[in-house]
Amino acid sequence: MRLADAYNQFAGRGVRFGLVRAEDANLDQYVTRKALDGLYATIADEERAIRASPLEQSQKLLRKVFGALVQ
Q1: How high is the pLDDT of residue 70?
Q2: Does the global pTM surpass 0.85?
Q3: Per-residue DSSP letter, 1
Q4: Which candidate, 33, 28, 29, places its Cα nearest to that of 3?
Q5: Cα–Cα distances in Å, from 36 out to 8, 41, 50, 61?
Q6: Which entry of 31, 34, 51, 63 is 20 to 30 Å from 40 by CA?
Q7: What is each CA distance from 6 to 10, 13, 28, 58, in whole angstroms?
Q8: Distance (Å, rounded) from C-alpha 26 to C-alpha 46?
């Protein structure tokens, strides 16, 4: 039995008692959701930085993308 399966089994019991939210009872789905939340937060931070200073951010991006070609 995988650890995730054991977690899912115990979390399923916890849902019945109101200790665990139903959407958090499956470990694979929970980890995927949290990883996507982190990714979206990072994207939002980058977008915020671009909107605050578009010229500076575009120059940084161009250096990052084409910097390897120059060296």
Answers
A1: 59
A2: no
A3: -
A4: 28
A5: 20, 8, 21, 23
A6: 63
A7: 6, 11, 12, 47
A8: 30
